[in-house]
């Protein structure tokens, strides 16, 4: 412990100010926390939790935003006072509320304080928040606190503030560099890009067109800031599958970003695709938005990594964002909002592939009937979704296993993702659950057969 005469003490804000700051709104720390100020020993960096000054009173003040004294050097008390900002003539006190805080064990909580005026009239058009000790603690010099500079906007501007992060349902002007009812907003609205979701869909499927819509008035730097802000939008984990006749199935997220494709029994992630495959995939997603009744909803990517990765080849890597696309001129992407890929009703065209070859079954409908009529000990009578452990025990004897082809391919199984409008099924979600259960059971049987083969 240093003798009090040799100690160098300073006040210090312990957290940063939450931005943006508006007049009439409480000043808070990041994460909606209360601002805190502490008395710190400059030599050790430790909070002075006891002794002289640890329970002193502190005044919160407004400072000029361009008060740029070197943090490593001490400023004089006069310099600090000269940089304190007072209210404009005829205005209320610039800082209103609990401007006095009392330290407890060296730390004080800043109360409910707010600015009554914006910062546009100051030298730098910004403020800093300051804190200075009110009580005399002898001959010890206590250096005042100073926050980072920040802009204070009028409260009416809060109605137009940006969201961090934005949500999919936010209006598109909540993004950086797009002002409400401004030129960019009007251009986007004309193209039916009304929400952040619409913006992201067009960004992933046809960024060139989006750039063209915004025009030359948007600089490269503005574009970069806007896109970076849009990409911070939090998406759910659901994925969607769609395919057209004679095409691979494409896997994508709610804003049309291609995650991967199902091709020849393999799930290939986006950054492993060739440029031609990426273009085809984006075209399939565009078609999906125009034909949403045939989209299959997946819970997440793990739905594609079912059971045994040795049977379904998964190419592991991170997904890259597509850079080019051929989005149709009729702006059909807006159909994404219509139902957010809700499963079709029983009267809509079916989207399941008819080929599902397990034990000689030729159609998916046959597969469902076959499951209904399979008999084994412990059979589940009321549900098509059976416990795989029970099924394994039922079929683990040689008399049952001899009827299974051990080298059959999963290609036809994976083809169940593909649409076939000619074969209706009752409940798409039920069919998907059946598919998952049968696949898990099928893999279990293969492992049992492999173990028995090795034993022999």
Labels describing this entry:
single chain; 456 residues; alpha+beta; Immunoglobulin-like; 4 domains; 6-stranded mixed β-sheet; 12 helices; 18 strands; 26% helix; 15% strand; elongated; disordered N terminus
> Which geometry do the CA atoms define?
elongated
CATH class (first level) name of the largest domain: Mainly Beta
Order of helices and strands: EEEEHEEEEEEEEHHHHEEEEHEEHHHHHH
Largest sheet descriptor = 6 strands, mixed
CATH-assigned fold name of the largest domain: Immunoglobulin-like
Q: How large is the share of residues in beta strands?
A: 15-25%
CATH architecture of the largest domain: Sandwich
CATH superfamily of the largest domain: Rel homology domain (RHD), DNA-binding domain
User: Uncertain regions: pLDDT < 50 for 5+ in a row?
Assistant: 1-5, 306-386, 398-411, 416-425
Structural class of the secondary elements?
alpha+beta
- The helicity comes to 25-40%
Number of helices: 12
Query: What quaternary form is this?
Result: single chain
Family: Belongs to the plant ACBP60 protein family.
GO molecular function, one term: DNA-binding transcription factor activity
GO cellular component, one term: nucleus
Organism: Handroanthus impetiginosus
């Amino acid at each position: 412990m240093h003798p009090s005469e040799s100690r160098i003490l300073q006040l210090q804000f312990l957290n940063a100010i939450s931005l943006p700051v508006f007049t009439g709104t409480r000043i808070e720390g990041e994460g909606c926390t209360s601002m805190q100020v502490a008395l710190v020993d400059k030599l050790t960096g430790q909070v002075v939790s006891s002794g002289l000054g640890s329970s002193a009173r502190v005044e919160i003040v407004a400072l000029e935003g361009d008060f740029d004294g070197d943090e490593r050097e001490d400023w004089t008390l006069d310099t600090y006072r000269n940089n304190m900002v007072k209210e404009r003539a005829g205005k209320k006190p610039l800082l209103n509320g609990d401007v006095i805080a009392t330290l407890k064990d060296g730390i004080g909580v800043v109360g409910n304080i707010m600015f009554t005026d914006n910062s546009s009239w100051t030298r730098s058009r910004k403020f800093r928040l300051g804190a200075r000790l009110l009580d005399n603690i002898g001959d010890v010099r206590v250096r005042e606190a100073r926050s980072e500079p920040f802009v204070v906007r009028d409260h009416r501007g809060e109605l137009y503030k940006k969201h961090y992060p934005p949500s999919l349902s936010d209006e598109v002007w909540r993004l950086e560099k797009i002002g409400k009812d401004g030129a960019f907003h009007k251009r986007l609205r004309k193209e039916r890009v009304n929400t952040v979701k619409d913006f992201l869909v067009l960004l992933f499927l046809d960024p060139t067109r989006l750039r063209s819509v915004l025009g030359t008035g948007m600089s490269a730097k503005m574009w970069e800031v806007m896109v970076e802000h849009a990409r911070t939008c939090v998406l759910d984990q659901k994925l969607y599958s769609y395919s057209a006749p004679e095409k691979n199935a494409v896997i994508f997220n709610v804003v049309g970003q291609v995650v991967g494709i199902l091709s020849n029994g393999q799930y290939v992630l986006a950054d492993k695709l060739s440029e031609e495959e990426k273009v085809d995939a984006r075209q399939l997603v565009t078609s999906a938005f125009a034909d949403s009744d045939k989209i299959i909803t997946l819970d997440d990517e793990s739905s594609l990594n079912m059971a045994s990765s040795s049977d379904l080849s998964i190419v592991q890597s991170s997904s890259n964002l597509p850079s080019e696309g051929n989005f149709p001129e009729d702006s059909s992407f807006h159909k994404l909002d219509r139902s957010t890929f809700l499963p079709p009703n029983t009267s809509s065209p079916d989207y399941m592939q008819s080929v599902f070859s397990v034990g000689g079954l030729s159609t998916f409908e046959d597969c469902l009937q076959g499951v209904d009529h399979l008999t084994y000990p412990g059979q589940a009578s009321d549900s098509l979704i059976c416990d795989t452990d029970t099924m394994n025990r039922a079929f683990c004897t040689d008399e049952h296993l001899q009827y299974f082809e051990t080298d059959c391919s999963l290609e036809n199984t994976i083809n169940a993702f593909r649409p076939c409008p000619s074969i209706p099924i009752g409940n798409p979600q039920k069919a998907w659950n059946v598919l998952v259960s049968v696949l898990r059971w099928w893999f279990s049987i293969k492992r049992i057969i492999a173990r028995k083969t090795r034993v022999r």
